[in-house]
């Protein structure tokens, strides 16, 4: 009993440390139909030469958002993101290259990486794990199960922590 409690504590602590050490790592959960802002602030400030928002699993198929010199988005943008992604600050002042993804669908679930070239170096600035769950109740269809599974594992984690606190 106490051994398992110790192991659980160590696991939770490890997760917590891992999360807090990588400061540009974000986790966001939204509902279908929401508009979500994906935050990315380049600490080097302005003069953005190149901006690439990528989704990890679509690597070779196009970008979530692409900017180089002037926006030529459609040439490089993945079709599922066309007309749905906008810069929060169109002037990208102070390295603010956050984007809003509108009207999210279940398939938007994934890992979003923000790469910025400023000066002569391209760097990963933000790495965001976005989870989209079905809005409203039940869902029931195939897509809904993804959100349900994520939801259940969150519940399991909360229950686990609760049990730990009671022991
Ligand atoms: C998302 O943004 C669009 C316009 O940009 C707006 O019409 C819509 O109501 C917003 N949706 C939500 C859920 O806020
Ligand atoms: C980026 O710009 C938007 C719009 O001006 C603002 O609401 C947001 O707070 C800015 N983000 C940061 C991190 O400065
Ligand atoms: C969601 O993704 C799956 C697999 O990638 C695809 O088969 C399906 O058509 C997509 N659904 C929508 C609504 O884009
Ligand atoms: C971004 O985060 C995901 C999930 O934590 C990880 O799998 C991925 O390797 C990260 N991307 C980069 C470029 O470090």
UniProtKB/TrEMBL annotation:
GO CC annotations on file: external side of plasma membrane
GO BP terms, alphabetized: regulation of cytokine production; T cell receptor signaling pathway
Residue span, Ig-like domain: 19-131
Signal peptide: 1-22
UniProt keywords, alphabetically: Immunoglobulin domain, Membrane, Signal
Localization of this protein: Membrane
Keyword Membrane: yes
GO molecular function: signaling receptor binding
InterPro entries associated with the record: Ig-like_dom, Ig-like_dom_sf, Ig-like_fold, Ig_sub, Ig_V-set, IgSF_BTN/MOG
Top-level taxon: Eukaryota
Main location: membrane
PANTHER family on file: BUTYROPHILIN (PTHR24100), ICOS LIGAND (PTHR24100:SF151)
Protein name stated in the entry: V-set domain-containing T-cell activation inhibitor 1
Species in which this protein is naturally found: Channa argus (Northern snakehead)
């Amino acid at each position: 009993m106490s051994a398992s409690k110790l192991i659980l504590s160590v696991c939770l602590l490890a997760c917590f440390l891992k999360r807090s050490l990588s400061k540009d790592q974000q986790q966001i959960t939204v509902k279908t139909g929401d508009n979500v802002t994906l935050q990315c602030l380049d600490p080097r400030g302005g003069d953005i030469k190149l901006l690439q928002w990528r989704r990890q699993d679509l690597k070779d198929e196009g970008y979530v958002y692409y900017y180089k010199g002037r926006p030529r988005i459609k040439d490089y943008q993945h079709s599922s993101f066309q007309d749905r992604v906008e810069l929060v600050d169109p002037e990208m002042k102070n390295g603010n290259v956050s984007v809003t993804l509108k009207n999210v669908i279940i398939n938007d679930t994934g890992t979003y990486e923000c790469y910025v070239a400023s000066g002569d170096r391209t760097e990963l600035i933000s790495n965001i794990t976005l989870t989209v769950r079905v809005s409203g109740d039940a869902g029931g269809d195939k897509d809904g199960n993804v959100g349900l599974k994520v939801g259940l594992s969150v519940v399991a984690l909360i229950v686990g922590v609760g049990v730990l606190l009671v022991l």
